[in-house]
Description:
- The termini are close together.
- The mean pLDDT is 92.
- The chain is α/β, with parallel strands linked by helices.
- The chain has a single domain (2-141), classed as Mannitol-specific EII, Chain A, CATH 3.40.930.
- The chain is 43% helix and 20% strand.
- Strands 1, 2, 3, 4 and 5 form a five-stranded mixed β-sheet that branches.
- The chain is globular, with a radius of gyration of 14 Å.
- The longest helix has 14 residues, at 40-53.
Amino acid sequence: MLKETLTIDLVTTDLPGRDKNEVIKSLLDLICKSGRVKDPERALRDVIEHEEGMSTGMENGIAIPHAKTDAVDELVACIGVTKRKIDFENLDRKPSQIFIMTLSPRGGTGPHVQFLAEISKLLKDAKMRKRIVKAKNDRELLDILTS
């Protein structure tokens, strides 16, 4: 699923943003470059609305902002890494450096759940998280995520 969903244009080792909202907008910009988001403003509203209801800051430096939205026809995802540590209201109260954004159409859950299950399995490993944060460029990051 990761190999099918992630491409070089959907990963970055240099995600801009100094706070939660800037990071969300940067992730959305990355996703929108794929051409699969019909309505970027709608997508942003849906992600922010979901985030306001419940923070998607997880543990171990990971945040997964996401939304079900009419702005896409199929699952689209991206992964960004920052050198800065960003307060994302994480469950463990520690900042994040690894960000995964998913947008999926309303009414469908299969691909979204499968993608999150695969990425979660990968990110459970502390050594893998370290490799992801230390990736030197987008190609290396993509290779780490899909190998």
